[in-house]
Amino acid sequence: MTASEHPDASAGTSTSAFVDAAPAGAAVIPPAPTRRPAPSGTAESVVAQAAAAHSEHSGVQRIAKRLGKGLNTKSGSCLADVKDLAQLLFIDLNDASSAMPVCQLITELPYDGNHGRWSGIEACLALASYMAAENGEEKLSSDYAHKLRAPDRESDDDFRNKINARMRQRSLNEPNLYDREISKAISAVDKKTELDWRKLRVQMLLFLLAHGGSETYPDEELARLTSNELVAIRNLASESR
């Protein structure tokens, strides 16, 4: 479930696109919503702080090493690394204080129609929305959820919007929560595979919570399922360390 290696410098710029005047080699963090101050320092320093907090965790160290080379916001694999690190910090390690600043490295990036790049940003928006709500920051949570729904507002074509809305509603009403795969892993006593499938399930639950609008899963049920899933994942993750 880890992201692929970053492309080399010939595939894109190695510095951040957040601020044109950023010092060479340092990606400057974009401004977060005014209700929560952006973390200080560069993106690399935020990643370094998260890595220092979990110096014995090989997964955190592996992703942090890649991101330590610089945050390239044009790279889908780099955005995926940010997503993977934020999810690892919160979902596995229950460290919201480290996960939120990592999410904020990319939550202010706009939707540009590139769905490949957007997937990492979208996952961080869903995670940030959940963490903000858990911290009692309902307005901030709502802001992140609104940004996550940016693709829903991309077209001015009424017919296309109707088709997209129909397809989107179907995905919200009939999400794949990997029940069959998880049950199979449990039966086989394959905890590693069970953990991998549960992580995919909680990612879908976080998206459903942030997006809203499911006609089969009320928000209260989604919140309950998400909470239960996080407990199960953290128990499995602690056993594997």
Write the layout of secondary structure elements.
Layout: H1 43-53, H2 58-67, H3 76-92, H4 96-103, H5 115-134, H6 138-148, H7 158-173, H8 179-187, H9 191-211, H10 219-240
Helix pairs in contact: 1-2, 1-4, 2-3, 3-4, 3-5, 4-5, 5-6, 5-9, 8-9, 9-10
Q: What would a concise description of this structure say?
A:
The protein is mainly α. It is built from 10 helices and no strands.
Explain this structure.
With 241 residues, this protein is mainly α. It has two domains: 10-153, no CATH class; 158-240, no CATH class. It has helices at residues 43-53, 58-67, 76-92, 96-103, 115-134, 138-148, 158-173, 179-187, 191-211, 219-240. Helix 3 (76-92) packs parallel to helix 5. The two termini are 17 Å apart. Residues 1-38 have low confidence and may be disordered.
